[in-house]
Design brief:
With 311 residues, the chain is an alpha/beta fold. The chain is 44% helix and 12% strand. An eight-stranded mixed beta sheet has the order 3-2-1-4-5-6-7-8, sandwiched between helices. The protein is globular.
Length: 311
């Protein structure tokens, strides 16, 4: 049968920040961490959907009412990321689950002018992690789990066109952003090697999270949206199954730095170490992406400085 949420160690006394916790993988991850005793911050772009998610969580787990809070966070707006970090009252963060993301959208840009998938999926989480790093390092056993995808294997990043301005393909841009998530994890793990922080990545396999239909819905392509919904219904595992690799990466004692955790059968199943494209372990590419991310976000040595000596 393999590892399930019942195998999670007790999380009492730990504080977890979960981005995109209003639905899908993020909601399940937040709920299960709260079930095991964690204090959970639901970091959501939509306050309305976030409030509804928190109400649902409290209905399911009344005992977690005092241990859950909602905070606004728009990863597509770096001013929102900075405000979230500044206003978060916690002096210590034990778990950061970089879960929120977008998939295969028509070309668009974030509030700061970055291509949306690269800006939200990678740059927003790069900035958030740096801005919370001091509080993560204040915890005795901190972890940063960044959600990638098996589809990262469709494309490597293009260091000359990180923003996909020269040529845009929605699935290529998605794969590049998910590769960026893995390169970020690789470099963060290297820089944190002399600290207690574990940086790991996870992917849900083929899980019904709503991401698959978002692009078609935005463009009004109803036939494609219906097709994707049908595919989800027939083949995808539910979000509670897709969240297991995230929960394993966040809590299992045996998880190593730079681990990539996914379902046993790639699309579904119990969490195990997942295969990854060789370019996601490229030290040079990871370092160059890191430097570019510092320049683009303005989150650099001042925030990640505690790791610079170790680097």
């Amino acid at each position: 049968m393999g590892w399930t949420a019942r195998n999670m160690p007790d999380q009492s006394g730990r504080t977890a920040v979960v981005t995109g916790a209003n639905g899908g993988l993020g909601y399940v991850t937040a709920r299960e961490l709260a079930r095991r005793g964690a204090r959970v911050v639901l970091a959501c772009r939509s306050e309305e959907r976030g409030a509804a998610a928190r109400e649902r969580l409290v209905r399911e787990l009344p005992e977690a009412a005092e241990r859950t809070q909602l905070r606004p966070l728009d990863l597509g707006d770096l001013s929102s990321v900075r405000a979230f970090a500044k206003e978060l009252p916690d002096a210590r963060v034990d778990l950061l689950i970089n879960n929120a993301g977008v998939m295969a959208l028509p070309y668009g840009t974030t509030a700061d002018g970055f291509e949306t998938q690269f800006g939200v999926n990678h740059l927003g989480h790069f900035a958030l992690t740096g801005l919370l790093l001091e509080r993560l390092l204040a915890a005795p056993a901190p972890r940063v789990v960044t959600v990638s995808s098996g589809l990262h294997a469709l494309a490597n990043i293009d260091l000359r066109d990180l923003d996909s301005r020269v040529r845009y393909g929605r699935w290529t841009a998605y794969a590049r952003a998910k590769t960026a998530n893995l390169l970020f994890t690789h470099e963060l793990a290297r820089r944190a090697r002399h600290t207690a922080l574990i940086a790991a990545a996870a992917h849900p396999g083929y899980a019904d999270t709503g991401l698959q239909t978002a692009g078609a819905r935005l463009e009004g392509r109803r036939a494609v949206e219906r097709f994707m919904r049908l595919g989800n219904r027939l083949a995808a595992q539910p979000a509670r199954g897709g969240a297991l690799p995230l929960l394993y990466a966040a809590t299992a004692p045996e998880v190593a730095p730079d681990a990539f955790i996914g379902p046993r059968l790639l699309a579904r199943g119990a969490p195990v170490s997942s295969p990854r494209a060789p370019w996601t372990r490229d030290d040079r590419a990871a370092a160059l992406l890191w430097a570019a991310s510092e320049r683009l976000t303005g989150v650099g040595a001042g925030e990640y400085g505690a790791l610079e000596v170790a680097a």
